[in-house]
């Protein structure tokens, strides 16, 4: 992939695809991590005299304008982080966008409205997507792909537009790909992967691919209960994907055959119901009461997981160990994160809820070797899938 150093950008309109898909409470940004991650590339381009046109998506507005998903609050926050006003276009490729772009001077930055307000952005119809891509590409002269969280999507701004313009990868994407290559090509060993989150079905591909690569696989979160059930244990009212039990048994057998240490919780916090103030008790993971549901790994599990990570050479972590949004059930996730911070391993937080948990729990982001901005993209890369956005940038 070409990088920014290969282009003279002064005085040129540079269309930058970034990932600004941040959580909002009304118009209040509750986690600006992705905006902060987009700043270095935008700042570099502006410092070199480019006329920067940033574009991004937010949420799932279903191909039409929806004020709940406007990027206006993001434009304000981006301006604060850049220390300069960011001009905001109230549409994507319409009159406002053209006017804002035409008014840009060297070193100035604009942000287009939510790409997903246009049906062509996500369209599975190649012709519709291509038509929108041509209108978007017409706003710029050079394309820079830096939205790693979207590179696994065959969307117009990610795949089609870079094929229409001279293009390069931004620093964020280059850094993310470098990290993923370290995880897949010659990882320092022991190589441990910690997977959590709600559903086994979300991680089937990555588990299948990683079993041939890792030394230890630690399973927590809601998905752990399907593994426990596959071993024949009672999981009460805990999250369970019965349709995945046979697949999970295959994973257990394959791990044993390959000599991979597959580690499951040994105790859990079994709650009366799903609520922050729910009563709970610590029980053995193999004896969850029928009327209870596990909402976090227990203290012995936290110690076990930390011990398994203590001497690792490489650790990839994707998915919380429990309902970290509830303080009472955030202990397991905190324990894993703190174990990674203490570790001397190359530690990667795989984006998504894991990255959100690090920030929500107030943990130092520089305590990890890398925090990814793209959970889904990271997982698909580790599954061995082809990511359309990277293919386009490599063309």
Please describe what this structure looks like:
By secondary structure, the chain is an alpha/beta fold. It has 14 helices and 17 strands. Helix 11 (331-342) links the parallel strand 15 (314-318) and strand 16. Helix 10 (299-310) runs parallel beside helix 11 (331-342).
Quickly list its features.
six-stranded parallel sheet, 395 residues, alpha/beta, 36% helix, 14 helices
Q: Structural class per helix/strand content?
A: alpha/beta
First-last Cα distance:
8 Å
Q: Percentage of helical residues? A: 25-40%
Side-by-side strand order of the widest sheet? 5-6-4-1-7-8
Alpha plus pi helix count: 14
Short summary of the structure?
The chain is an alpha/beta fold and 395 residues long. The protein is built from 14 helices and 17 strands.
Describe the SSE topology.
Blueprint: E1 13-17, E2 24-25, E3 28-29, H1 33-47, E4 51-55, H2 72-82, E5 86-88, H3 95-103, E6 109-111, H4 126-137, E7 142-145, H5 156-160, E8 167-169, H6 171-184, E9 191-195, H7 204-210, E10 216-219, H8 224-230, H9 245-258, E11 261-263, E12 267-271, E13 280-284, E14 293-297, H10 299-310, E15 314-318, H11 331-342, E16 346-349, H12 352-360, E17 370-371, H13 375-383, H14 388-394
Parallel strand pairs: 1-4, 1-7, 4-6, 5-6, 7-8, 9-10, 9-15, 10-11, 15-16, 16-17
Antiparallel strand pairs: 2-3, 12-13, 12-14
Helix pairs in contact: 1-2, 7-13, 8-9, 10-11
């Amino acid at each position: 992939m070409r990088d920014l150093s290969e282009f003279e950008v002064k005085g040129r309109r540079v269309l930058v695809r970034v990932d600004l898909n941040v959580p909002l409470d009304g118009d209040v940004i509750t986690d600006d991590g992705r905006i902060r991650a987009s700043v270095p590339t935008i700042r570099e381009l502006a410092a070199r005299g480019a006329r920067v046109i940033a574009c991004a998506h937010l949420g799932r507005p279903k191909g039409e304008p929806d004020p709940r998903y406007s990027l206006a609050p993001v434009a304000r926050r981006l301006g604060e982080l850049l220390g300069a006003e960011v001009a905001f276009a109230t549409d994507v490729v319409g009159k406002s966008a053209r006017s804002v772009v035409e008014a840009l001077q060297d070193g100035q930055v604009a942000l287009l409205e939510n790409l997903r307000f246009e049906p062509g952005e996500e369209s599975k119809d190649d012709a519709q997507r291509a038509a929108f891509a041509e209108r978007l590409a017409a706003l710029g002269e050079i394309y820079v792909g830096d939205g790693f969280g979207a590179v696994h999507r065959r969307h117009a701004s990610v795949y089609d537009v870079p094929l229409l313009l001279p293009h390069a990868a931004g620093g964020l994407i280059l850094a993310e790909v470098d990290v993923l290559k370290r995880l897949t090509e010659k990882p320092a060993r022991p190589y441990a992967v910690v997977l959590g989150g709600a559903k086994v079905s979300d991680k089937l591909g990555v588990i299948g691919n990683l079993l041939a690569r890792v030394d230890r696989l630690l399973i927590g979160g809601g998905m752990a209960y399907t593994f426990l059930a596959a071993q024949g244990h009672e999981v009460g009212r805990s999250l369970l994907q019965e349709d995945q039990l046979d697949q999970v048994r295959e994973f257990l057998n394959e791990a044993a055959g390959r000599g991979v240490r597959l580690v499951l919780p040994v105790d859990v916090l079994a709650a009366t119901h799903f609520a922050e103030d729910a009563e709970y008790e610590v029980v053995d993971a193999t004896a969850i009461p029928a009327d209870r549901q596990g909402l976090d790994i227990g203290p012995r599990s936290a110690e076990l997981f930390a011990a398994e990570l203590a001497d690792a050479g490489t650790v990839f972590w994707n998915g919380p160990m429990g309902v970290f949004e509830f303080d009472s059930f955030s202990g397991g996730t905190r324990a894993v994160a703190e174990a990674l911070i203490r570790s001397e391993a190359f530690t990667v937080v795989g984006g998504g809820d894991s990255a959100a948990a690090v920030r929500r729990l107030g943990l130092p982001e520089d305590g990890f070797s890398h925090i990814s901005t793209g959970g889904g993209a990271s997982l698909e890369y580790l599954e061995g899938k082809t990511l359309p956005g990277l293919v386009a940038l490599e063309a």
